[in-house]
Every structure is written in C-alpha cells, then in structure tokens.
Amino acid sequence: IDMVTEQSGAGLAVENEPAAITEAMEAILSDIELQRKMGRRAIEFIEQEHRWDVLSSRMRDVLLATNTVG
DSSP string of the chain? Predict the structure, then answer.
C-alpha cells in the first residue's frame, strides 16, 4: 500500500492506529483541493498503470521469466 500510495500520490498511507487514521481522514476531509488532487492522481494512475495492454505485458514478462524449459 505504501508503494502504490507513494507512486500515485492518490492517498495517504498511515499506521494502523486509530489516531493516525483519524488524523489522515481529517486532513483529507478538511481540504477540498487535496481531495481533488488525490482524485485526479488516482484517475491518472489507473489510466497509466492498469490498462489491459500494460497488465498483459507485465503478465507476459512474468510468465517468460518463470518459464524453465530444460
């Protein structure tokens, strides 16, 4: 989660503790511009990283790398 959040800029990754979660939620809920930025970044990230051609290429690479013909 940390890696995706950092790469996309579309959210906040916090410790699994009530105080940290509350603080992050309050930060997001109190800042409409932050909400918009995170929303735009989420859409951009999905459009760039989760298209079928990108996913199928990654899967092909994994399968070729694990193919042990011998």
Answer: -HHHHHHH-SS----SSHHHHHHHHHHHHT-HHHHHHHHHHHHHHHHHHS-HHHHHHHHHHHHHHH----
- CA–CA separation, 6 vs 70, rounded Å? 40
Report d(CA 44, CA 41) in Å as an integer: 5
Tell me how far apart the terminal alpha carbons of the chain are, to the nearest angstrom: 37
Please give the model's pTM, rounded to 2 decimal places. Answer: 0.67
Tens-place pLDDT, residues 31-43:
999 999 999 999 9
